[in-house]
Amino acid sequence: MIKYIKETTEYLQEKGFENPEIGIILGTGLGQLLNEIEVLKEVSYNHIPNFPTATVEFHKGKLIYGNLEGRKVVVMQGRFHLYEGYSLQDVTYPVRIMQQLGIKTLLVSNASGAINLNFKKGELMLIDDHINLQGGSPLAFKGVEQLGTRFTDMSAPYDANLNHQLETIAKENNITLHKGVYASVVGPQLETRAEYRYLKIIGADAVGMSTVPEIIVANHLNLKVAAVSVLTDECDPDNLQAVDIEEIIAMAGKAEPEMILLFKELIKSL
């Protein structure tokens, strides 16, 4: 993996990806942030050596480098998931590349379902902690200790200072920003009524199919991390409606401007 990381990093540096400070991962249906970025370089994933390729139709599959609020950023337009058939090492490979390029901070977004019935679709949730239900670890491979400590501490995976700043920004801009626990499952099927009840019992406030692997690797690499979920549906097992993925994408797009404001203001203050 060290050889692959070196090859990928050198390729992107040659393409002009120079010393980004902040990495951003855009989740399902969350691409409007790119309209706010002065794009300097962009490369399709399938052109980047050793990079996975996005296979989900609403994930574009580009790595973008540019300026946002006076900072150099590198942005993943489209992420990778276990349900596409990738390994956890594949899913998190871009985080390792962004860190090698120079980022110190990682901002992550996703679309998720609200388990906590006090949270409503169209609102945002700041991830304060998570539960890994993906059945593995992106750090469970031979030689991981050459890239960082094997036994990575996860007592506080999300940076308290970044979270505090996001909460302050939300309050100043009258944005509803819940704080809660995100459970990450494999997917791609959505949950049964019994699974939603289980998730609530174990302490999840929202559920999705991403994010946790990237957060684990970011902590492995000593990056500061913050993550925001756009809540796209309400997961009430006693009144469960069939979910239409197009409705989820539409709801993500509707709620996205508030997430963009949060990220932009946070970047401005870093």
TrEMBL record:
<dbReference type="InterPro" id="IPR011270">
    <property type="entry name" value="Pur_Nuc_Pase_Ino/Guo-sp"/>
</dbReference>
<keyword id="KW-0808">Transferase</keyword>
<comment type="pathway">
    <text>Purine metabolism; purine nucleoside salvage.</text>
</comment>
<dbReference type="Pfam" id="PF01048">
    <property type="entry name" value="PNP_UDP_1"/>
</dbReference>
<dbReference type="InterPro" id="IPR000845">
    <property type="entry name" value="Nucleoside_phosphorylase_d"/>
</dbReference>
<comment type="similarity">
    <text>Belongs to the PNP/MTAP phosphorylase family.</text>
</comment>
<feature type="domain" description="Nucleoside phosphorylase">
    <location>
        <begin position="21"/>
        <end position="268"/>
    </location>
</feature>
<comment type="function">
    <text>The purine nucleoside phosphorylases catalyze the phosphorolytic breakdown of the N-glycosidic bond in the beta-(deoxy)ribonucleoside molecules, with the formation of the corresponding free purine bases and pentose-1-phosphate.</text>
</comment>
<keyword id="KW-0328">Glycosyltransferase</keyword>
<dbReference type="InterPro" id="IPR035994">
    <property type="entry name" value="Nucleoside_phosphorylase_sf"/>
</dbReference>
<protein>
    <recommendedName>
        <fullName>Purine nucleoside phosphorylase</fullName>
        <ecNumber>2.4.2.1</ecNumber>
    </recommendedName>
</protein>
<dbReference type="InterPro" id="IPR011268">
    <property type="entry name" value="Purine_phosphorylase"/>
</dbReference>
